[in-house]
Each structure stands twice: as structure tokens, then as C-alpha cells.
Design a protein that fits this description.
It is built from one helix and 25 strands. By secondary structure, it is mainly beta. Strands 3, 4, 6, 7 and 8 form a five-stranded antiparallel sheet that branches. The structure holds 2-acetamido-2-deoxy-beta-D-glucopyranose (4 copies). One 2-acetamido-2-deoxy-beta-D-glucopyranose (NAG) binds next to β11 and β15. It comes from Scomber scombrus (Atlantic mackerel).
């Protein structure tokens, strides 16, 4: 009885040991990083394709589901972006004026690792230096695009400090709905040189990266290219408000209201800045306030005051990341004209 018990204990211990060793074997399976990391430029002005291959040591291990952790330095946000994917390719937006830095790890799961996720201790890395082509000091500056009242887009830029005479600038753009880059349809010329592009009639999808490149040539060599990536809904400048109305109410109230510009700009997204100038016999004051309403009421207005208003608008940050202020409207005043100098009796 005693010996049987000892035997069974011994057998159980052996089994446990074997199981444990098998378990160890699985967990100890070293995970190698992927191979053949490459970054391909299909000519989409910074939208680059990253590819890699599975680690050679795992190619024939079909029972081990592989996942990859891709990390790339996002120069727009100045931080690493981390993505997990089962695919062996990923496309991301890069600023071609900066270095491209990419790392990929292998992650294993499933029966191979007893259900836990095991990450390779090392990664494969690729650092691609920005191609420093073009003459120093010839990159354009202050590139800005405006989506005028959500009707048409214009982009403008200033010349670099060392722009050679007879330089010819060119602007190219690309977004996901275009097969290949396109050139500016109509350049804006100022002082004989190209300073912008008028995209009237060109459709830009919103909530999509639009990539621009301003490059060019000169008798002394190629100009240094500038790359910009933006989303068109963040470039809106509402039209200038044209219709403002003033009316007096009971108890000497003064009410100013205005109409939002016609067009596609969503009215519920607009916020307004109202500039109120008040002239009184004892002096002038000027106040500004921001409101979501299109009406402002002054409780009581005295005869000897003159109140003037102008408004401007932009899209609220609840709707878009940013927006340009519209131009100030014309001024509307009550009384409309000063027939005689305001002075106290
Ligand atoms: C596998 O994982 C399960 C759950 O965590 C655990 O109970 C079991 O002992 C593990 N097996 C091995 C062989 O490590
Ligand atoms: C852009 O072009 C359109 C049509 O050609 C014209 O109506 C508009 O005024 C131009 N805008 C600018 C800012 O040049
Ligand atoms: C400017 O960029 C476009 C688009 O990448 C390219 O096709 C063109 O050759 C470039 N021009 C110059 C002068 O470098
Ligand atoms: C806004 O005002 C500027 C300066 O007066 C003018 O050049 C521009 O055309 C105006 N823009 C609009 C959209 O009215």
C-alpha cells in the first residue's frame, strides 16, 4: 500500500516535470524580429509604403499565429505611432523633409506560446535620411491654403531668401482619390513669379490627407522642395458677413442680428466675434465677445450714445481642428449717422 502510493506520487511528479519542461520549451521559443524591412515611395508626396517579411525561423511554423508591431516616428506629432497588424505591409504619411524612422517587432500567440502574446526582444529598424536635394535657401516659406467659404481652395507661399532669378516654381498635389500627383491648375503670379495656386473647380475630399509639394528649377539648379500635408476641413475661412441689422426694442433696447453667409458652411458650427464700439459724450469704449448666437441685445441705450458693431466668424473647434477667421464685416451703427457732434447738454 505504502509502496503503491510512493509509486503513484513518483509518476505524478514525473508527469508534472515533463509537462513543465514542455511548457518551458514552448515559452522559451525565441521570437525573432521580422526581416527585409523596406520603405517604398510610390510618388505620393510622403504617403509611403512599409513592407517586411516574417522572421526566417518562423516561416514554417503555421501553428504559430504571427502579429507585427510597427512603430514609426510621426514627425507631425513628434512622437512614435504604434500599430499592430497581421499584414506585412502598412502605409503611412511621412514628412519627406525629415528622416523616416521605422521599427517592426514580431509578436507570437496561440498554442506556440500557450496563449500568451510574446514579443520579440529586438526589432528590425530602418532609418531613411531625408534626401537633401535642391539649393540651400530656395525652399518656399509660409505655405498656407484657404478653403474659401467651403467653395474653392487657394494656396499661397513666399519665396525662399536665396531664390535665384528666373526660378520656376511648381506645385503638385495628391490625395487617396487620385492615381498620381497632379500639378496646380492655375498659378497666381505676383511680381512676375508664381506665388500661389487657385484650385477653383478642383475637388478635395475632406477628412483625408492632402499632400502638396512645391519644388521647381532655376538656372543654378533645382529648388529645395517643400512638403505639406493637411486636411481641407481645417482650412475653412467663412465668407465675410454682409447682412447685419439693428433694431430698437421696448425700454430702449438695442438689438443687433446678422445672417450667416450663404453656402455649404454649416451654420451650427459657426462661432462669432462681435466688436462693439460705443461712443459717449465722456469717451469711447471698445469691447469684443465671442458667441454662438447671431443676435446680441444691449439692455438699454441712451440717446447720447452711438453704438457700432461689426462681426466675423470661424468654425468652432467642436466641428474642426482649426479654422481661419473671416474678414470683419462692415460696421453697422445706431444712430446710423452722426448728424451733429455728440456732446452733453
Ligand atoms: C498554460 O497557461 C495556463 C493558463 O495560464 C496555465 O494554467 C497552464 O499551466 C499553462 N501551461 C503550461 C504548460 O505552461
Ligand atoms: C480663383 O479663380 C476663380 C475663377 O477663375 C476666380 O473667380 C477667383 O476670384 C480666383 N480667386 C483668387 C483668390 O484668385
Ligand atoms: C517636382 O515634384 C514632382 C512630383 O513629385 C515631380 O514630378 C517633378 O519632377 C519635380 N520637379 C522638379 C523640378 O524637381
Ligand atoms: C479680406 O480682406 C483682405 C484685406 O483687406 C482682402 O485682401 C481679402 O480679399 C479679403 N478676403 C475676403 C474673403 O473678402
Amino acid at each position: 500500500m505504502a509502496s503503491y502510493s510512493w509509486l503513484s506520487h513518483h509518476a505524478a511528479l514525473m508527469l508534472l516535470l515533463i509537462n513543465w519542461r514542455e511548457g518551458m520549451h514552448c515559452i522559451e521559443l525565441s521570437v525573432d524580429p521580422p526581416g527585409d524591412l523596406a520603405v517604398l515611395d510610390p510618388g505620393h508626396l510622403g504617403y509611403l509604403e512599409i513592407t517586411w517579411s516574417p522572421p526566417a525561423s518562423l516561416i514554417n511554423r503555421a501553428e504559430c499565429p504571427k502579429l507585427y508591431q510597427l512603430e514609426y516616428f510621426n514627425t507631425y506629432e513628434n512622437s512614435w505611432t504604434v500599430i499592430r497588424t497581421v499584414r506585412r505591409t502598412y502605409t503611412a504619411q511621412f514628412d519627406l523633409m525629415k528622416d523616416v524612422r521605422v521599427r517592426v517587432y514580431t509578436l507570437l500567440s496561440g498554442p506556440c506560446t500557450n496563449g500568451t502574446l510574446v514579443k520579440s526582444t529586438s526589432y528590425i529598424e530602418l532609418v531613411q535620411k531625408s534626401p537633401s536635394t535642391g539649393l540651400v535657401g530656395t525652399a518656399v516659406k509660409d505655405f498656407v491654403c484657404v478653403f474659401h467659404n467651403m467653395e474653392y481652395v487657394t494656396c499661397n507661399w513666399g519665396g525662399g531668401p536665396k531664390m535665384p532669378a528666373n526660378s520656376q516654381q511648381t506645385l503638385y498635389f495628391w490625395h487617396k482619390e487620385l492615381g498620381q500627383t497632379q500639378e496646380c491648375p492655375k498659378y497666381t503670379i505676383s511680381n512676375g513669379v508664381r506665388s500661389g495656386c487657385n484650385f477653383t473647380g478642383t475637388f478635395f475630399p475632406d477628412f483625408t490627407d492632402i499632400n502638396f509639394c512645391v519644388n521647381g528649377s532655376s538656372p543654378e539648379g533645382p529648388l529645395k522642395p517643400t512638403y505639406i500635408s493637411l486636411q481641407i476641413q481645417n482650412q475653412v475661412m467663412p465668407a465675410t458677413t454682409q447682412k447685419l441689422h439693428l433694431q430698437t426694442g421696448p425700454n430702449a433696447q438695442l438689438e443687433v442680428h446678422w445672417e450667416r453667409p450663404a453656402g455649404r458652411v454649416p451654420g451650427n458650427c459657426l462661432e462669432w466675434e462681435v466688436k462693439h464700439n460705443q461712443e459717449r459724450p465722456d469717451g469711447k469704449t471698445s469691447t469684443q465677445q465671442i458667441t454662438k448666437k447671431t443676435i446680441l441685445t444691449l439692455p438699454s441705450v441712451h440717446d447720447k450714445q452711438r453704438n457700432c458693431f461689426r462681426v466675423r466668424s470661424r468654425l468652432h473647434k467642436y466641428c474642426v481642428q482649426r479654422s481661419f477667421w473671416s474678414n470683419w464685416s462692415h460696421e453697422i451703427c445706431h444712430p446710423a449717422t452722426t448728424t451733429r457732434p455728440l456732446k452733453s447738454d
